[in-house]
Write a structure and sequence with these properties.
Length: about 290
């Protein structure tokens, strides 16, 4: 009898969860996570762990965007782009707010013997996507693919500590010229396919998330605002899709700043509904068996 009641409760909870979780809430920002990186405290091969992190602070670095445009020099729905560049992090903000709202004093990882701040560099290449809609005088765009490396720079020595792929999301801009306009913004999701040289990310209890990253349960999320530094029309065209060349296009330089979070993938609403139905069915089957 107690088992039947429990099954009913689980089924009801799963169905209610399906109702209460909006379709857009596919990812949840992790609170108070930890990061272990090589040699940040003293420039040695040893590793150092930083705890209770709200997010890493992103800033500096430059990206080059090649953007397909029409004869008037403006983007259009379906226009493609590619992006290569880097963005740095030398600081983090401690956890002080549930979700993506942490603020306060930035803490640097440290300063090396060379007097330079220890740096995590997010270097990305062959990031590509397309414009999916025009919005007023601007447009919205979607990322399709790309790769990145996370590089630790300690005392002038660069060491790749992690890497993976860009797997989605996008951004918007208020200019019809290029991706990453003066007040443009981007949100990028990336998996962590490999971790090297003692690099690790853990939850607030210190439990490693390596297996969760490998399975896609956890992802990195970079949210930035982007500033256009200038650009030029490329008369010879830009190449996308592994060889197709488009004319005309624009090459621009963009700088970005923002935050790097760890996010957890939530069950899809449809999956929750199936769980609820399965549990409800299990409860019904058990009742029939008991009555028999």
């Amino acid at each position: 009898m107690k088992s039947t009641t429990a099954l009913r409760a689980l089924a009801a909870a799963a169905v209610m969860a399906c109702v209460s979780v909006p379709a857009s809430a596919a990812y949840q920002v992790l609170d108070g996570w930890q990061i272990t990186v090589p040699g940040f405290a003293h420039g040695s091969p040893a590793t150092d762990t930083y705890t209770n992190i709200g997010h890493l602070v992103l800033g500096g670095g430059t990206a080059t965007v090649s953007q397909q445009v029409n004869g008037s020099g403006n983007v259009f729905t379906g226009a493609q782009f590619s992006e290569t560049g880097m963005i740095n992090s030398i600081a983090y903000v401690n956890e002080n707010c549930v979700g993506n709202c942490d603020n306060g004093v930035q803490k640097i990882f440290g300063v090396g013997p060379d007097g330079q701040a220890y740096t995590l560099e997010l270097a990305f290449s062959n990031v590509s996507g397309f414009v999916d809609s025009l919005i007023g005088s601007g447009f919205h765009y979607t990322f399709l693919t790309g790769g990145y490396s996370l590089i630790a720079i300690v005392n002038g020595v660069s060491t790749t500590v992690a890497g993976g792929s860009i797997i989605g999301l996008g951004g918007d801009t208020n200019t019809t010229n290029v991706i990453g306009g003066t007040t443009g913004s981007s949100t990028v999701l990336a998996n962590v396919a490999n971790q090297l040289f003692g690099f690790d990310v853990a939850d607030s209890t210190g439990t490693s998330l390596s297996a969760g990253f490998a399975s896609g349960q956890y992802l990195l999320q970079a949210t930035t605002t982007n500033t256009l530094n200038g650009g030029s029309v490329v008369g010879g065209g830009c190449t996308f899709d592994g060889g197709a060349t488009f004319v005309p296009c624009v090459n621009v330089q963009v700088t970005s700043e923002g935050a790097l979070n760890v996010v957890k993938k939530l069950p899809e609403p449809g999956s929750l509904a199936l769980i609820g139905l399965a549990l409800a069915g299990a409860g019904a089957a058990r009742r029939r068996k008991t009555q028999a």
